[in-house]
Amino acid sequence: MIVDLTKMKVGESGTVVSLEGGRNFTLRVQSLGVRPGKRITKISAHFWRGPVTVRVGGPNIALGFGMAAKVMVEVDRKRHG
Fold first, then answer.
1. β-bridge pairing 71-75 and 60-63
2. Which domains does the chain have, with CATH numbers?
3. What is the distance between the alpha carbons of residues 32 and 34, in angstroms, rounded to a whole number?
4. What is d(CA 41, CA 55) in angstroms, rounded to the nearest whole number?
5. What is the pLDDT of residues 53-67, one digit of tens each?
6. Which of 4, 24, 44, 70 is spaced 20 to 30 A from 55 at the CA atom?
7. Is the sign of the CA dihedral 32, 46, 12, 25 positive or negative?
8. pTM of the model
9. Contact, 21 vs 41, CB < 8 A?
């Protein structure tokens, strides 16, 4: 299932499939290590559209809600039924 980072649950992991923003956005998040093909884990999210903290490789990275909404991830969710 492909969702943006804001829709992932804390603790979920997946693979970044696309960055849905302009050139400046893409360059900025890629400089933080967030790029298509990378594994990403959602560490925390703040209530009411606050920053989203993720782990890509080693360090934790905080992205603003608007930026996180533009990072599309193929989530490793188990299908039931």
1. unpaired
2. 2-75 (2.30.30.90)
3. 6
4. 5
5. 999 988 899 999 999
6. 24
7. negative
8. 0.90
9. no
